[in-house]
């Protein structure tokens, strides 16, 4: 897994490199992830980006209003960068762009004007490169998840809204995709969908199964109404963000039990969240959660049960105001 941390907001994507921040205050250094010299922060910002460049002297813009309109997801692996731009700069139906040779280039959009065209994406909400090099894109408005296998130039459908509506792999309003090291595929479906769920395709048997959904009692921990971002850790614990119920839940790989990681029950607790948007878990087990409602980014260290504040709104130490946090990676 790439150890970079990404916070997705709106309009501006700003990169902070840990090595360039050696002159900031010690308090800041204490809060910067320390996974190694290759770690860094990537933040999309709603406000004017220029004012933040002089705050710590370690911020550089990697995409701005000339490149993106509403970047909702960002993926970086090695030297490859992708952005899912929910509403592009021309106020269109969005596009997916990749940075190559220093420039952002469109790899998918809706220029064909045909929602049933496999290459047409409308309101893309997730982009993910699997460990085997396959590239996945979630196109929310035309209800599909597509994949470009590594080394190929053509795309294929993973799931969509064709076929039997009662099938597990039938999707309406998909939001997020995650692929594990052994090629298990996880997809969250929710938002405007009446059948909110997270589904999994196992690489062992190629069958789809439901991880969590909106059946059962609303008081159940694994009851979800609007699953947003998902994450599967190195030890196969499954994390799901439910925006509607304002909670982050975890399914243990040890005993399959569910637990609440963060929620909105106690506004004085360090893991209080009002509209969680993203989650990332490092190889060592550190947990990062981005909250759109506060907004803030919090961290739980693998060797400590307490939560700490990494960034929050109106905090200039972290590059200025943070708004509309859609993800942390």
Keyword list:
329 residues; mainly beta; five-stranded mixed β-sheet; 1 helix; 25 strands; 2% helix; disordered N terminus
Structural class computed from helices and strand pairing: mainly beta
Which sequence of SSEs, written as H and E, runs from N to C?
EEHEEEEEEEEEEEEEEEEEEEEEEE
Radius of gyration: 19 Å
Strand order of the largest sheet: 4-2-3-1-25
Binned strand content: 35-45%
Tally of contiguous helical segments: 1
The largest sheet is: 5 strands, mixed
Total strands: 25
The helix content, as a percent range, equals under 10%
**How does the overall form come out from the CA principal axes?**
globular
Low-confidence stretches: 1-14, 16-59, 315-322
Return the average pLDDT rounded to an integer: 78
Q: Please give the alpha-carbon distance between the first and last residues.
A: 10 Å
């Amino acid at each position: 897994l790439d150890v970079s941390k990404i916070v997705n907001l709106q309009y501006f994507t700003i990169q902070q490199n840990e090595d360039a921040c050696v002159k900031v205050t010690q308090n800041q250094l204490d809060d910067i992830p320390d996974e190694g010299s290759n770690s860094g922060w990537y933040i999309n910002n709603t406000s004017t980006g220029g004012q933040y460049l002089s705050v710590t002297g370690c911020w550089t813009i990697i995409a701005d209003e000339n490149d993106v309109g509403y970047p909702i997801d960002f993926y970086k692996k090695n030297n490859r960068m992708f952005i899912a731009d929910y509403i592009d700069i021309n106020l269109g139906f969005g596009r997916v762009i990749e940075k190559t040779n220093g420039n952002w280039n469109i790899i998918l959009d809706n220029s064909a004007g045909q929602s049933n065209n496999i290459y047409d994406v409308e309101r893309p909400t997730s982009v993910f490169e699997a460990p085997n090099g396959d590239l996945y894109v979630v196109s929310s408005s035309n209800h599909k998840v597509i994949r470009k296998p590594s080394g190929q130039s053509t795309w294929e459908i993973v799931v969509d809204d064709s076929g039997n509506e009662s099938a597990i792999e039938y999707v309406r309003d998909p939001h997020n995709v995650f692929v594990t090291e052994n090629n298990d595929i996880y997809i969250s479906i929710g938002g405007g969908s009446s059948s909110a769920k997270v589904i999994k395709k196992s690489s062992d048997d190629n069958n789809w199964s439901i991880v969590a959904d909106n059946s059962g009692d609303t008081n159940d921990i694994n009851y979800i109404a609007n699953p947003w971002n998902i994450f599967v850790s190195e030890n196969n614990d499954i994390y799901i963000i439910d925006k509607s119920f304002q909670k982050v839940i975890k399914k243990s790989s040890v005993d399959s039990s569910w637990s609440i990681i963060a929620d909105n029950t106690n506004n004085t607790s360090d893991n209080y969240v009002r509209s969680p948007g993203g989650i990332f878990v490092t190889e060592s087990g550190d947990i990062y959660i981005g909250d759109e409602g506060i907004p803030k980014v919090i961290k739980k260290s693998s060797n400590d049960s307490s939560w700490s504040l990494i960034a929050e709104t109106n905090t200039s130490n972290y590059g200025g105001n943070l708004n509309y946090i859609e993800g942390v990676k």
